[in-house]
Amino acid sequence: MKDMSHEATELELYADNSERLYHWKMALFEALARKKDRAIFDETLAPKIFASLLKDAAKAYEHEYMTAHSWRTVFPTSVRAEVAESFTREFLTWYDTDRVALQKKSEKSA
Questions:
Q1: Residues 3, 6, 9, 10: what is their CA dihedral angle, to the nearest 10 degrees?
Q2: Could you tell me which residues come within 8 angstroms of residue 28 by beta carbon, excluding any fewer than 6 positions away?
Q3: Helix, strand, coil % (nearest 5) of the chain?
Q4: What is the rounded CA–CA span in Å between residue 41 and residue 105?
């Protein structure tokens, strides 16, 4: 797994530790899972779904910590793309472990 920049790590941790942003991320995971279930999931396009989440996370980070620089300076597009790639890898792992396990469990109980 590729090491992320300090800024990308900071943004990813912020998004994961904010309740509102985390729930948003999980809703996006569910949307991607439905696409994967229907065999229309495209891994190359998947990072784009996280763009608005990460833009909002960058703005919220700037607002909360009142940085001296704009959110665009602290978290430029390249950093947000790096986090989006990380979220895509996390989604694929989540889908293969948690989502599939939950589906199998519900099939057994039905």
A1: 180
A2: 49, 50, 53, 87, 91
A3: 80, 0, 20
A4: 23
- Which pLDDT belongs to residue 1? 44
From CA 69, how far away is CA 107, in angstroms rounded? 51
Tens digit of pLDDT for each residue in 62-93? 999 887 889 999 999 999 999 999 999 999 99
Choose among 92, 7, 99: nearest CA to 54. Answer: 7
Q: Is residue 15 scored above 60 in pLDDT?
A: yes
Q: Where are the beta strands (DSSP E) in 1-110?
A: none
Evaluate if pTM is beyond 0.85: yes
Q: Angle formed by the axes of helices 6-17 and 51-65, to 10°? A: 90
